[in-house]
UniProtKB/TrEMBL annotation, chain A:
GO CC annotation terms, alphabetical: plasma membrane
Subcellular location: Cell membrane
The protein's name: Sugar ABC transporter permease
Sequence similarity: Belongs to the binding-protein-dependent transport system permease family.
Automatic annotation (TrEMBL), chain C:
Pfam families given in the database record: SBP_bac_1
Keywords annotated in UniProt: Signal
Protein name as annotated: ABC transporter substrate-binding protein
Chain ranges passing through the membrane: none
Signal peptide from the UniProt entry: 1-21
Domain of life the protein comes from: Bacteria
Organism of derivation: Solihabitans fulvus
Organism phylogeny: Bacteria, Bacillati, Actinomycetota, Actinomycetes, Pseudonocardiales
Length: 296, 302, 429
């Protein structure tokens, strides 16, 4: 076989397979089998206990008319839309403050990061007390500044925001640490050059700092979005999806269907629709970017 | 790039020590209205907001069971009680759980670092047929909620004869698609010139990866290590399903045994939470200089 | 391609560790003993008691080796775990299952049918409380062995009643008396509540409503379990009362914590007048040194029917030898001589009448003041219907209750909606 033909058939570096094979086999092996299994499950009426019954697309049809499912999608989107941008924006703000020559910056950074290591279970135990409407520290603090008592987890309109607040408490630390490191790595000569050219603070940030930290922002965006879409344990330990399902997010709904209400087939259908939708969005974004790349 | 970072090393605050103030560049000192840097006005309350709940967690672990088994719990323990700690530490299995958690998290971190690096480098630098498709598939698995694949994964573990054993906690997490994504993104951002030079010197691809790329990638590896460690250390759902024997519990699983259906050993829960969080905290405090300083030495840049 | 030694070594060590750690588990113990894997779901004092019982059984039964494990503890977790275990085909021989989940778990063909066992001569199935028998039976077959039983009553704080100048609750109280007392006991200034109600919307929220329904002659489901029956005048009266107490009088502490242990803690701190609770609440109250009294539930029209939650030991088929050994173990465990030890260990109620005559019983009743009231109410207590759709019906009613407790929904509308959802669930797919 000529070299060029081999290249065309196998690519330039077929030995690349050797590198990616172990990880790919493990990841796909641990996911594709289970995904196929779950897809078959979604076509059945199955409680994982009794012999199941093939129902075709009935679970998917039921889903189209399920208001709770629609609400759960809404809650997940709400949560993601709040948590992801807020955690990164606040994280960037704090990181920029700490990037100033400030005494005790290390101490501050540690304070902000520490909640990140706390488990969701511990967070639940901690904050169900903090946000208790009658006895919690949060309302006591609000009373000090003249704001009346809030319902927090007992108010369907506030429960999601409270959940976001707790997630921010636990999730900003990672953004700060990673962004601070990136900020400290912005080439100083570029900043100084921009300053010499008469660029203001804002211009320097937009044209020098921001492009330099973009890869880190992308990393955080992906990570935080994945965390947000998969939100489960915090809901499980604080609200159990309530009040009035106000915090029933998609993954919690899947869990509830499969393990609390013995409707695993339906739960699988729910999860499937969501996974396919997210995947579709990601692919669409990629395709759009490619097309734009070709056009430009 | 690295040399530049090193040159800056003296001026960039090295983290983890009392820093800033003294070696502040002279040109930037402003006229002072306050006896301290005004940024502290924003930073100090923020630090309090983040740290206070944890301080309370620490304090509450020194309350007696009767004291904390009240609602609302006291803000301060009336006198330091060790009820919770004695309860936790008298449990003969606690050190075993600790060891299990360390083993599981350690093995997971290690294998992730190795396998993700290999795959990420392959995807970043080598062109082979099917790379795009495989990478796309890997990324697609990121959006699958674990609750969906939990049962079939359990089935798989059973086929492998691993249920109710520590490998059952390790095998499904040996490598993460996210880790591959993170490292690939980083490798793509590295200037290829170093590697080309090494290639010309006769290094194999693996040699280049190990001698040139990985040392440069320390920040990304550190990030992956921290994320993997915490995810594994704090995981509860999977151990709960796959582990039954107390001897194979992880710390998080062990902690749930302090809460009962109707009665809970709250002081033990609090003390257990402290004992579970503390090692991670200390590890970060000790390691943060490496973690953050290594991040600063080259950065996740594009 | 040259492989770097370090990497290869790492992988080898990892794989080696996995293989090594995978060894050491097997199904049978050496020496021909039959092994019984037992997920008892108990912690703390209860675990100590059950460990002691297991040890005694193993000593006196040389052919059987019972291996007791906690499994998971909280309701959802144990159900999740057992469901996953059954789905994957790797399950214990016996596990602790919550009464409200039994009908679903029993859908698994792996669950043993104990009907013949309990009706065999000398077993004494009639010695178990009626609510236990009812809760353990699915479609007329016995699918679980009673493990733990409780019923609801009122625990009250004497000091708070004295301070408010109200007479202590007694077993002739109506729910109106209860509501009036709760209102009088509530004091926003000192943060004191008349009573509490779990507000997470789970089964702990729901089952407290059923006695109020039954006392008026209402019911949860129709006789053949094909539709809900709670969207009735009786249901509306019950839910409206909860709504009015919580949302109008504001005398109810709504406990949104999924564990619903906060209202008990509030009572332990002397900040709640009356706790609707089971015997499980008493030990902590004793520890907190609250001067308390216990009485049965208030009633409607003189009917004071209470609800009994009965959980079960559920046995799974791992082959006939293990099944036989497991039945032998569970029969031994529920024998009065063992039951009284179990009762004392968990500070709960005896699961059968004969245990009341055991020597330790009198000490037990003296040690945990007021627990006799719960025992006295057991014979008349009712159980929830053991149907597979119950968790869904419960979840639907849970929404109606939370809406009413928080004053977010009109009780009648909410109850109607819950009945519709419940009916859909009962119809099945």
């Amino acid at each position: 076989m000529s070299t060029s033909l081999r290249r065309r058939l196998l690519g330039e570096h077929p030995s690349g397979w050797g590198l990616v094979l172990p990880a790919s086999v493990l990841i796909l092996g641990l996911n594709i089998g289970p995904m196929v299994w779950a897809f078959l499950l979604s076509l059945r009426h199955d409680d994982l206990l009794a012999p199941s019954k093939w129902v075709g697309l009935a679970n998917y049809r039921r889903l189209a008319e399920d208001p709770v499912f629609r609400a759960a999608i809404g809650h997940t989107l709400n949560y993601t839309a709040l948590f992801v941008p807020l955690s990164i924006a606040i994280g960037l703000g704090i990181a920029m403050m700490l990037n100033q020559p400030v005494r005790f910056a290390g101490f501050y950074r540690t304070c902000v990061f520490v909640p990140f290591v706390v488990s969701a279970a511990a967070e639940g135990a901690l904050f169900s007390f903090v946000f208790d409407p009658h006895y919690g520290v949060a309302n006591a603090a609000l009373a000090r500044v003249g704001i009346g008592p809030q319902g927090f987890f007992q108010d369907p309109r506030q429960a999601m925001a409270t959940l976001v607040a707790i997630s921010l408490w636990g999730g900003i630390g990672l953004c700060v640490v990673v962004l601070l490191a990136a900020l400290q790595d912005v080439p100083t000569h570029l900043v100084e050059a921009a300053r010499l050219d008469g660029a203001g603070r804002r211009a320097v940030f937009r044209h020098v700092t921001l492009p330099a930290i973009t890869p880190v922002l992308v990393f955080l965006l992906v990570w935080q979005t994945l965390q947000a879409l998969q939100l489960f344990e915090l809901v499980y330990t604080t609200t159990n999806g309530g009040p009035l399902r106000a915090t029933t997010v998609v993954v919690f709904y899947v869990y509830q269907q499969a393990f609390q209400q013995f409707d695993a087939g339906y739960g699988a259908a729910v999860a499937y629709v969501v996974a396919v939708a997210v995947f579709g969005l990601a692919v669409a974004r990629l395709v759009l970017r490619r097309m734009r790349g070709r056009a430009g | 790039m690295t040399t530049m970072a090193r040159r800056r090393g003296g001026r960039v605050p090295t983290l983890g020590r009392g820093e800033g103030g003294d070696d502040r560049p002279k040109g930037r000192s402003r006229r002072r209205l306050l006896p301290f840097n005004p940024w502290h006005l924003a930073l100090a309350p923020m630090a309090v907001l983040f740290a206070l709940p944890l301080v309370w967690l620490g304090l509450s672990s020194f309350m007696s069971n009767a004291e904390i088994n009240r609602f609302p719990p006291a803000l301060f323990p009336s006198s330091p009680h060790l009820d919770g700690y004695t309860y936790v530490l008298r449990n003969a299995e606690f050190p075993v759980w600790f060891g299990n958690s360390c083993l599981v998290a350690g093995a997971t971190v290690l294998s992730n670092l190795v396998l993700c690096s290999l795959a990420a480098y392959g995807f970043a630098r080598m062109r082979f047929r099917g790379a795009g498709v495989v990478f796309g598939l890997l990324m697609a698995t990121l959006v699958v909620p674990f609750q969906l694949t939990m049962i079939p994964t359990f089935l798989l573990m059973r086929q492998l004869g691993l249920t109710d054993s520590l490998p059952a906690l390790i095998v499904p997490n040996l490598v993460s698609a996210f880790g591959v994504f993170l490292l690939r993104q980083f490798f793509l951002a590295l200037p290829p010139e170093f590697e080309d030079a090494a290639r010309i010197d006769g290094c194999t691809r693996l040699g280049v990866l190990i001698r040139i790329v990985l040392p440069l990638a320390r920040p990304a590896l550190a990030t992956l290590a921290v994320l993997t460690f915490l995810t594994t250390w704090n995981d509860l759902t999977w151990p709960l399903i796959v582990i039954s024997t107390e001897h194979n519990y992880t710390l998080q699983l062990g902690l749930t045994t302090f809460t009962g259906q109707h009665r809970s050993q709250w002081s033990a829960v609090m003390a257990g939470n402290v004992l579970t969080t503390l090692p991670v905290l200390v590890a970060f405090l000790v390691g943060q200089r490496n973690f953050v300083a290594s991040l600063t030495s080259s950065g996740l840049k594009g | 391609m040259r492989r770097p030694k370090t990497l290869g070594l790492l992988v080898a060590v990892l794989l080696g560790a996995s293989v090594l750690a995978a060894c050491g588990s097997g199904d049978t113990v050496s020496g021909g003993k039959v092994k019984v894997v037992f997920w008892h779901g108990q912690n703390d004092a209860a675990k100590k008691t059950i460990d002691g019982l297991i040890a005694d059984f193993n000593r006196t039964h040389p052919n059987i080796e019972v291996d007791g494990n906690l499994g998971g503890v909280l309701a959802d977790q144990m159900t999740t775990k057992v469901t996953a275990a059954l789905a994957a085909g790797s399950y214990p021989d016996v596990a602790y299952i919550f009464g409200s989940d039994l009908a679903n778990i029993a859908r698994s063909p792996k669950v043993l049918d104990l009907t013949d066992t309990v009706h065999a001569n000398g077993f004494g199935w009639d010695d178990f409380w009626p609510a236990e028998q009812q809760a353990a039976s699915v479609d007329g077959r016995v699918r679980g062995m009673p493990a733990l039983v409780d019923d609801l009553g009122i625990v009250y704080n004497k000091k708070l009643f004295d301070a408010a100048g109200i007479g202590y609750p007694n077993d002739s109280w109506s729910w109106d008396d209860f509501r009036t007392a709760a209102r009088k006991l509530t004091d926003a200034g000192s943060g004191t509540f008349g009573t509490g109600w779990p507000g997470a919307g789970a089964e702990d929220t729901v089952w407290r409503l059923w006695p109020m329904l039954w006392q008026q002659g209402g019911d949860i489901l129709n006789p053949d379990h094909s539709a809900t029956a709670f969207d009735s005048p009786q249901g509306r009266t019950a839910l409206s009362l909860v709504h009015d107490m919580a949302a109008v009088d504001k005398s109810v502490f709504v406990d949104s914590d999924p564990s619903s242990q906060r209202m008990n803690q509030l009572f332990n701190d002397g900040k709640m007048g009356m706790l609707v609770a089971g015997p499980w609440a008493l030990p902590d109250i004793v520890d907190a040194k609250i001067d308390y009294g216990v009485t049965g539930l208030p009633g409607f029209g003189g009917n004071h029917t209470t609800i009994s939650g009965a959980d079960d030991w559920v046995l799974f088929d791992n082959g006939s030898a293990r099944s036989k050994a497991t039945i032998e173990f569970i029969t031994w465990l529920t024998d009065p001589a063992q039951d009284i030890r179990w009762t004392q260990g968990v500070d709960n109620l005896p699961i059968r009448r004969a245990s009341l005559k055991e020597p330790g019983y009198q000490d037990f009743v003296k040690r945990v003041a007021g627990i006799q009231v719960f025992v006295d109410n057991l014979p008349g207590a009712r159980a929830r219907p053991a149907v597979a759709a119950y968790p869904k019906v419960s979840a639907a009613v849970g929404q109606a209750l939370v809406g009413s407790l928080l004053g977010q929904t009109d009780p009648a509308t909410a109850l109607h909606k819950a009945a519709q959802d419940g009916d859909t669930a009962l119809k099945g797919p």
